[in-house]
Automatic annotation (TrEMBL), chains A, B, C, D:
Native organism: Roseiarcus fermentans
Cofactor(s) listed: Fe(2+)
Xref: Pfam families: Diox-like_N, Glyoxalase
Family per record: Belongs to the extradiol ring-cleavage dioxygenase family.
Keywords, ordered alphabetically: Aromatic hydrocarbons catabolism, Dioxygenase, Iron, Metal-binding, Oxidoreductase, Repeat
Catalysed reaction, written as an equation: catechol + O2 = (2Z,4E)-2-hydroxy-6-oxohexa-2,4-dienoate + H(+)
Protein name stated in the entry: Metapyrocatechase
Subunit structure: Homotetramer.
UniProt keyword annotation of Hydrolase present: no
Enzyme Commission number(s) of this protein: 1.13.11.2
Keyword Signal (UniProt): no
Entry-linked InterPro entries: Catechol_2-3_dOase (IPR017624), Glyas_Bleomycin-R_OHBP_Dase (IPR029068), Glyas_Fos-R_dOase_dom (IPR004360), GlyoxalaseI/FosfomycinResist (IPR050383), VOC_core (IPR037523), Xdiol_ring_cleave_dOase_1/2 (IPR000486), XylE-like_N (IPR054560)
Occurrences of domain VOC (ranges): 8-123, 150-268
């Protein structure tokens, strides 16, 4: 297919309360590598299986949560294209200069109806460690910790999910792979810009701009089990899992970083194509949709965010 | 991303010598379902996890091999678009009427430099079994046999691989995820039209229009092991595996259907994006590229085709 | 080693409220085979990987629960040996004639301090399906459902766990692989007669002769995940899991048969030898011992028995 | 059961040509830990999941191969018992003083019909790392490399396999779980002293006292795949696999340490009990028995030993 425009979730910038604890957690437990620390103290991380400069940005702050979710576009002119699309849609667009995050080119940013900041960019330097491209091994560096292969997606909470659905479809060319419809309207949406079952998801919540979780892709259910062993061994707080989502079919654990940001290890999930019908869920089965084995929501899913 | 044009491998039509034996093999062992038999005796099969009418077409003939590899496009007008692109490239395009394969809309077809027939189409009815789309379970029908989740890709052999590379990139918008370069030129290419590491691949071979294998996606390495147990239990001839490909990283077994067509069960494989560099292999490491654990080609890989 | 005396859990006889529902559950979901139905209506089941005549006995009754747990000894004279040991210990022993369960030889029986009936026997006919012994395949019959490989163990609830510990060690030559000690005494014990981390386990409970669960061995964590998919697909009530036990390290799901008897699918678990120290747990970590990922007991674990 | 006498394979002492290369291989790749180096330069290794002082002994020598296979007995008096049994059988027994290997008590030794030295001992100190026994985690030290959980068994080559069979059954209380019978007599035997499908195995070979392989237990097929990734990544020579044995059902890879000693990673394998019939294989299916997927022996299996 001709792949154009927004390619994938490229980075997420999250706030942490204790930077050394966060670095230990994301490098030793999740299995990422630290690429660099910026002059303002932000720390940049990546999986050894990612080519781009970084995918996780940690910012020291007094409250946990998300600063911005960045999506990478195919080419620089896509930024102009989407700036016009977003502006035409009625949202303000601002500009971030190349280098504001080390290794990244210029970005455009805007606020979506749930109150979150989304950024688009097209240029990233590559950084080490990364896969070799000539006669490569399956991996160069032996995977460690949970062996996360990539930053996969985020799930964000905010009030106007219907607004996000409309905006992501009309202005950003995303598609809705799955949705939960409650009697009072859309409750949650799983949006994809490619062939993954979701690249970003939103759940309805009274407060805007909340982070539910940042997800890392693992290889398979066996890896999910190993991640669970790590979580208990190092006394890391598990929210739920190992389990499966009915929605996306992903195999999962929810747990918390030392600052209280929820993380997910995610494996599986079906392959999406634009001709796949949107899967819909209603209030009678939403529990099974979210937690396929438990078949009911836990309180924390609905209420604990950062 | 904006997904346009050619989406994915949609079907492959292969020739079999003994139709009942083929049906038993593809339904009971590979784990597909028979959708229907056409008036001309062709038999149409699919995985229960595929929505479209069928993905495998079996045609009774006196020699095994491949008739055509069909790719599904996003919309009908894509056929006009690619007809022009292919014609402009200098290749003749013919037309197949809707319904020539049950459930499929009109197709266009053309012959590529390795001598194979490629077809494009945009319309397919859905057939049962298929996933539910409202409050769906992970599966409706318990998977059976090797539990193939989809027809994944084909690997075809023919003389002018360089010609295919040029054509698929320029006329069909495919990208080359990996390639093997021998001292006398390109030896093999893995081409993708989406986010899979390959949707079709070609290896250089003196005779045109040869089939190396038809691949079915399984869930993971555990599934590959179960497939191997099935192969030995039912005395099905294994070519090689279980092993891994260095190229695409896929976990794999090669084996033969009752007519001598090579099949592959394939799991894993990295996620491709258009900004991922083409991985290249040279003659010193081609063995490791093809069979990562054995690190050398076997004779059958290079010589046994149908 | 010289293996003598009591070899392994051989059968368990449980009570079910609805025999057709129970048969469907244990054959189609757990993956057993029905061997025969006795003249008194009891139904005998086994895994295709077990040689002996049966391992699960279902008896139609008005309340769920366990009638007896049977252990197989190496040779017939072991029954005389253990009859003397048990009698010397001070417990009454009764005799069950050969054929009372089809295919089994004579049994001796006695009541243990928690109020459960334990039986010993040495002779069992073999029944089909069973593994071949000349040039065997890994399996003859393709595994189905959860693909249980054997009846693995039972966990029983009753008041005098300390009494059981003493009796199983002194009269039956079992060893205690793990134990939970509460401030008021031993709370739970995992007893082994061989190299599995447990062959029978007991937890303290006010009422005697209660069944906590009957466990079936699956291959690995991947099989546990598949079992969970089956449980939700067929709306079978899950108690907890997939998770892991800290005690035994087993990977597990607890769920209920149609009569309310709790079942477990169990995989993993370490290899025990007589020189391995008894692992001990105290009240501060008992939650982690039972449910390693959740790190706390759920109410059902302590209160729901049959 | 009453477990008496010989419990399990306790250690194997092998000869290596390059000690630093051997240490790197067994610690970084296989995943063992070095416990200590003795005053004579022998190096002692173990898995972090083993309690005993060591299970692998490396001795620097000019040729690779095996010095002795040690089996651990339940209690010290078992040594006297087996000394009498072996002497009565007609074989000479010698004595090794406590401390000859650090941490081990006294040993008795004798030469078996295939020319190998077998030793028995009953006392071993524990060494770190080892599992905790109070409120233990599933593991204390994160597994690394291939994550070997224990030294599992050895396969030895020599001329008089029939003699070994008779001796191990009559003098050492082992049982034969599987055997291959060729037209000219027994070709290979898999002997167990407990509930594993084999604790030691022998294959007929013209020269005495040869080592075919030393096996390490991994968790499952997924672990076998990861081990294969490690082997190729570090350019370690693979003999065959990943594959499965028909005999024992074990999932396996054969590969070579830097001195040319063949190693195996082994997972799965059925549970053996004394009432399980000996599985037999004949010359028509021996290939499938050894390599279940390939269904034929490779040359190296029959000829490459150390």
């Amino acid at each position: 297919m001709a792949i154009t425009g927004i390619m994938r979730p490229g980075f997420i910038q999250i706030r942490v309360l204790d930077m050394p604890a966060a670095i230990e957690f994301y490098t030793k437990r999740i299995g990422l590598h630290q690429v660099t620390e910026g002059p303002d103290g932000r720390v940049y991380l990546k999986s050894a299986d990612e080519f781009d400069h970084h995918s996780i940005v940690l910012r020291r702050a007094d409250s946990a949560g998300v600063d911005a979710a960045g999506f990478k576009c195919v080419k620089d002119s896509d930024l102009d294209h989407y700036e016009k699309r977003v502006t035409d849609y009625g949202f303000a667009v601002d500009h971030v200069k190349a280098g504001e995050q080390p290794g990244l080119g210029r970005r455009i940013g805007f606020t979506i109806p749930t109150g979150h900041r989304i950024e688009l960019y097209a240029e990233s330097e590559q950084s080490d460690p990364k896969p070799r491209t000539h006669n490569p091994d399956v991996w160069e560096l032996e995977p460690h910790g949970m062996a996360a292969r990539r930053f996969d997606h985020s799930l964000l909470y905010g009030p106007d999910v219907q607004g996000n659905l409309d905006f992501f479809e009309k202005a950003l060319d995303f598609r809705c792979a799955e949705r939960v419809d409650m009697p009072d309207g859309v409750f949650a949406i799983w949006m994809t810009c490619g062939m993954k079952a979701h690249d970003i998801a939103f759940v309805k919540y009274p407060e805007p701009n909340k982070l539910h979780h940042v997800a890392f892709e693992l290889e398979n259910w066996q890896s999910i089990g190993h991640a669970a062993d790590i979580l208990t061994r190092y006394d890391i707080s598990i929210d739920l899992g190992p389990t499966r989502h009915g929605i996306t079919r992903g195999q999962t654990i929810y747990f918390f970083d030392p600052s209280g940001n929820r993380c997910e290890t995610f494996a599986g999930g079906y392959t999406y194509y634009p001709d796949i019908p949107t899967r819909t869920w209603d209030e009678t089965q939403v529990g099974k949709g979210i937690f396929y084995y438990e078949r009911q929501l836990n309180d924390a899913f609905l209420s604990v965010v950062s």
